Amino acid sequence: MLLTKCKKSGRCFLFVLIIIAFASICYAETADTSEPLGDVDVQEDETGYYYIVKKGDTLWGLSRKFFNSSWLWPDLWEKNKQLPNPHWIYPGQRIRLMPKASKPVAEPTEEKPVVTIEKEVEEPLYFIYAGIDQIGFVRKEELTPSAYILVESSEEKFIDQGDVVYIKQIGNQRLRPGQLFTIYRLLEQVQDPASSNKLGIQYYITGVVEIIKNEDEFDVGRIIRSYRRILVKDLLMPYKNRSPKIALRESKRGIEGQIIDTEEKNRLLAANNIVFINRGKIDGMKTGQEYSIYKLKIANSVQFNMDFGSLLILHVEEAASTALITYSEHSIHPGEKFRTPVPSKE
Q: Which listed CATH number (2.60.40, 1.10.150, 2.90.10, 2.40.10) goes with 248-339?
């Protein structure tokens, strides 16, 4: 369901140099070889170093664990051609971390000609989220619907992809054959637990319908995408093709907030779940920003904040945003706090 890809040019070459240097220093064969990469789950064979996937692992998390940066996961995926979808890895699979370090070759003593390499223009980083069209949002001002589903033509219990439906327009604007509409349903008001303020109504996206013809009293449409169960009286709004390519950008400093609800009303969350947070445009939130999920911990009578997950902003409304949990060390619950990532110490 998730298909992810990052576009990089200038950084890719730098990253390869870092990995080669790191490998040759840390993993060159010596008389006393300890655990590769410092992890007991890493295996070594004649081709390289491998990690055995455990329950709850993601490439995002493994990249953070072994290379100290979640954003390097595309290079990890590139090393593992056997993975068709980077968001779906399973316990027991072998993930190649890096090739076997080769022995250094002595450089020739003669002088080399000077070669000038033209510096490439660095492209922005992206996160690809293929399901962007089906994520909902929390909005204060209610949208005016264009129409609603009057009845399913075959009178079956459930409406699914390929079904023909009858549609009743709202207002004077006639629907045109060939037009696409997003099908949605309004759920309950979402409240900010920190302030008790109402952040807005949840818009729950269920599918996409295409108008195929007009009748005197109604219009006829065909369901071309079904994301979730579609019901009679679900509402229609004009379809807007949202790009799955999310440009990554710097997080706003000083942000603190909470996960207020989940799209599917889950009580337990993990990586790849969609959540709503109580920060929006008015707080400086933008798509592509990453934030750390954290908890207050107490050890030896000392209190400190410990990060255990992260989320990425996919959609922003005035007072709330929709986010994807990209990494979690353990279960996450609604009500968990998030903050601007703490810069790592060099």
A: 2.40.10
